[in-house]
Amino acid sequence: MVAFSSMIGNYYYGESNIQFITRSKSVMTGYRGLVLACAVLGAMGSVSVVWNLADITMGAMVLVNLIAILPLSVIAFRLLDDYLAQRRAGLDPVFTRDRVPGLKGVECWEPASVSDTEKATADAVR
Description:
It is a single chain. By secondary structure, the protein is mainly α. Helix content is 75%, strand content 0%. It is built from 4 helices and no strands. It has helices at 2-21, 25-44, 47-88, 114-125. The longest helix is centred in the middle third of the chain and has 42 residues, at 47-88. The termini are far apart. The mean pLDDT is 85.
């Protein structure tokens, strides 16, 4: 059950990531065929070969994740600096995209309205 649920979970992660990157039906069909081929070959292969391939693919996923984390860490540290600055000012930290200059492609954290900003400033002065 653990192996089956892991296989289904990893398939779902891959499918959702491919759908995020492209909406192409041919790419999705190719991915599904590759997953099916891996499942059949994994069931027929020797245990040592299957485990070695699993280790290689997990290592490849780690490398991809590390490469993705590096640019995201810049944003994370900028947000941490903003959080700490708000805490030092005695505020309850609020995150909006306008608080971090140069932050692009953010679909959430709507900018604070003028009244919210004025209220936060007034609360900080008190």
